[in-house]
Write a structure and sequence with these properties.
- The protein is an alpha+beta fold.
- It has a five-stranded antiparallel sheet. A five-stranded antiparallel sheet has the order 6-7-8-9-10, covered by helices on one side.
- The longest helix has 16 residues.
Length: 256
């Protein structure tokens, strides 16, 4: 009887009508992760909706009564009714249990965002749940812009690759030691076409912001590459003739 009453109480708590946050953003850019209900002062977010926005290369499925997320960087499971997430084999305790609502697995946004390297703030006046990178703001600002300008139309791996080249140059003694310095390095007429044509100043796509954060968190698709080019779009083939080829992703060829 006691177990039945506990189960009924848990089920009843799931039926409480929550308040609704109006907007979920990442570094100011809106995220399409679905409604963000609030239960007992805790904001919840769709697990699938958020991770697929932040990690487009991940896979999400339902197995043995729980949601499973898998990517190169993480393994995550969330079971409705449980007060923890299992992250890369470790149990991450939650202030409220995981919920299942209209087929969506809902988890508290703060601990999930923390696992993804993000900070959370709440604007009570606008109802905005704002996610922001815990990295240097300028790093995300400029890295996301060069990724967006150089790789619009490219796949996730291609966006990561562009960011990898910039960060690899920051670490190389042959290039400036900041992201801004690398992007605006004006030797040999400039290093990146978007700087010359001004598109680097355009607002980045939300996916490019996510790719910049993923790069800063260590995601890498091109190793130690320092150069890339699109052979069909340029007549300058110095890189092809003088550097070691690594791989091709989309329209770009990458070299060390």
């Amino acid at each position: 009887m006691k177990r039945q009453l506990t189960a009924l109480a848990l089920g009843a708590s799931f039926l409480i009508t929550p308040a609704r946050a109006s907007l979920l953003t990442l570094n100011g850019a809106p995220l399409k992760a679905g409604a963000t209900p609030i239960y007992e002062d805790t904001t919840f977010v769709s697990l699938r909706g958020l991770v697929q926005q932040l990690l487009p290369g991940c896979t999400v499925w339902w197995e043995d009564g729980q949601a499973v997320v898998q990517s190169e960087a993480l393994s995550l499971t969330a079971q409705p009714g449980d007060t923890a997430l299992i992250y890369n084999g470790s149990r991450i305790e939650l202030s409220q249990p995981v919920r299942l609502e209209e087929g969506r697995t809902l988890v508290p946004v703060r601990p999930l965002a923390g696992l993804l390297g993000l900070e959370v703030s709440w604007n009570a006046d606008t109802g905005e749940v704002a996610l922001s990178s815990s990295f240097n703001e300028d790093a995300v600002y400029w890295l996301s812009r060069i990724i967006s300008a150089e790789s619009q139309g490219e796949c996730w791996e291609g966006k990561i690759a562009v960011g990898n080249v910039v960060l690899n140059r920051v670490q190389s003694p042959d290039f400036p030691n900041t992201i801004y310095g690398v992007i605006f390095d004006d030797r040999w007429g400039g290093q990146f076409e978007p700087v010359r044509n001004g598109t680097v100043y355009h607002d980045p796509t939300p996916e490019s912001v996510q790719a910049a954060i993923a790069c800063l968190q260590g995601e890498n698709t091109v190793g130690d590459s320092l150069y890339f080019l699109a052979p069909e779009l340029t007549d300058n083939h110095w890189t092809m003739e003088n550097r070691d080829f690594v791989t091709t992703i989309g329209a770009h060829w990458f070299y060390e």
